[in-house]
From TrEMBL:
It is a peripheral membrane protein. GO terms for cellular component: membrane. It comes from Arabidopsis lyrata subsp. lyrata (Lyre-leaved rock-cress). Residues 23-88 form the J domain. Keywords: Chaperone, Coiled coil, Membrane. It holds the Pfam family DnaJ. Residues 1-24, 386-399 have a biased composition (Basic and acidic residues). PROSITE patterns: DNAJ_1 (PS00636), DNAJ_2 (PS50076). The lineage of its organism: Eukaryota, Viridiplantae, Streptophyta, Embryophyta, Tracheophyta. This is J domain-containing protein.
């Protein structure tokens, strides 16, 4: 009995531990009011600690890595995080559990399958290689110094990165900075920005995935001293495919500001990460001051402010829409019922009116009987037209009543006597 009790207690403890680990905030070790940047930083820190490449043959680390990834997927998606914060359910997670994949650790076979699904239209989310982030955090990556206004064209291998350092003066920092990368439309890459940590290493702070715009794939980071927004169109595409109505109202949920709005004077590090499945990426990088683009900056600020306002209006409009739609559905159902009831009443009225008559009810034979009667009448007509023997009297049938013959005179004569 003692053994059974111990097993039961261990099972309950395991279930409680599973529930606790399902709490995404506890898994990442952050409070529930954490910002997006704090969530990303916690995820990257713990993902590096428990990554399978750094902990081979360690099942505990593998489980923790899955939990950390799951927690980040819940909290990094605005809709999933809002659902979790509202319901308090510890089992909530992304609908498709479309976790970010580290292509560098997939292996050749899994990479082929991932590339195949991507070609078929399935959105494959990828993350920066954990080994690369570890090297950056340890300060073992090589950076190429660049000047503001300099343009560089290079080729980066898949799941690798080129690091660039830019030193800003006080005047350049106040004017604002733009970093843009472009490549051909068939290529995928990530534009990264790193912050320097105390040990001299680099910690990933911003990440912008490339997006196809016409014949090019582009990505950009903007530091203007005011919030500049990013929009994840992939999340919106998935929402629209699942439920177009809900997807419309959630369309601007992923329109969120960059975590860093300005750069201070000093050295800053950017990187271009090759995100293709099999081949390298040829790209062009340009880092330049935003001072000549004062009008464009104000236009961008005004337009994005209108988008943010429209997002708030959508939230209000959604509640109004559902309320009116519920009323419309109720009215449409009532209208259908009224039409059916009116039709039944009119049908009943016609039947009552048809009953007001002194004529005996006529027998409406079936089509079969009518056909039989018709055939019979034709037969009678043919009988009347048949040739008669001499001395026979034709008999007519009127109104279906057969008249009896009252005489039958033999008018035949013997021809021989004549």
């Amino acid at each position: 009995m003692a053994t059974h009790s111990s097993r039961s207690e261990n099972k309950d403890a395991g279930e409680e531990d599973e529930l606790r680990r399902r709490n995404p905030y506890e898994v990442l070790g952050i409070p529930s009011n954490s910002t997006d940047q704090e969530i990303k930083s916690a995820y990257r820190r713990m993902a590096l600690r428990y990554h399978p490449d750094k902990n081979p043959n360690d099942p505990v680390a593998a489980d923790m890595f899955k939990e950390v990834t799951f927690a980040y997927e819940v909290l990094s998606d605005p809709e999933n995080r809002r659902l979790y914060d509202t319901t308090g359910s510890e089992a909530v997670g992304p609908e498709n559990e479309d976790l970010e994949l580290d292509l560098s650790s997939l292996g050749a076979v899994n990479t082929i399958f991932a590339a195949l699904f991507n070609k078929l239209g399935v959105q494959i989310k990828t993350t920066v290689s954990a080994n690369l982030l570890g090297e950056a955090l340890n300060g073992t990556v090589t950076t190429l110094p660049l000047m503001v206004g300099q343009v560089v064209s290079r080729k980066v291998e898949k799941q690798s990165a080129h690091f660039y350092s830019v030193t800003l003066t006080e005047e350049e920092a106040q004017a604002g900075l733009i970093c843009k990368v472009q490549s051909s439309a068939k290529n995928k890459f990530k534009l990264l920005y790193f912050e320097q940590v105390e040990n001299g290493g680099l910690s990933l702070a911003l990440q912008e995935d490339s997006r196809k715009t016409g014949k090019l794939s582009t990505a950009g980071l903007y530091f203007f001293g005011f919030p500049v927004y990013r929009f994840d169109h992939r999340v919106n595409s998935r929402a629209l495919s699942r439920d177009p109505e809900t997807g419309f109202f959630k369309r601007l949920d992923t329109f969120q500001p960059f975590e860093i709005t300005e750069l201070k004077a000093g050295s800053h590090v950017f990187a271009v990460y090759g995100d293709n499945f099999f081949k390298s990426v040829s790209y062009t990088l340009e880092i330049f001051s935003s001072a000549p683009f004062a009008n464009e900056k104000e236009s961008l600020r005004s337009t994005e402010a209108q988008i943010v306002s429209k997002r708030s209006e959508l939230l209000k409009f959604e509640s109004e829409y559902h309320e009116v739609f519920a009323q419309f559905t109720e009215m449409a159902s009532k209208c259908t019922g009224e039409v059916q009831e009116i039709d039944e009443l009119l049908k009943r009225r016609n039947e009552i009116c048809a009953a007001y008559t002194i004529f005996p009810p006529s027998k409406q034979g079936s089509s079969k009987n009518r056909s039989w009667s018709k055939g019979k009448s034709k037969k009678k007509s043919s009988l009347l037209m048949e040739p008669r023997e001499e001395g026979e009297v034709a008999v007519r049938e009127e109104d279906g009543v057969k008249k009896k013959k009252w005489y039958n005179i033999q008018l035949r004569q013997d021809k021989k006597k004549n």
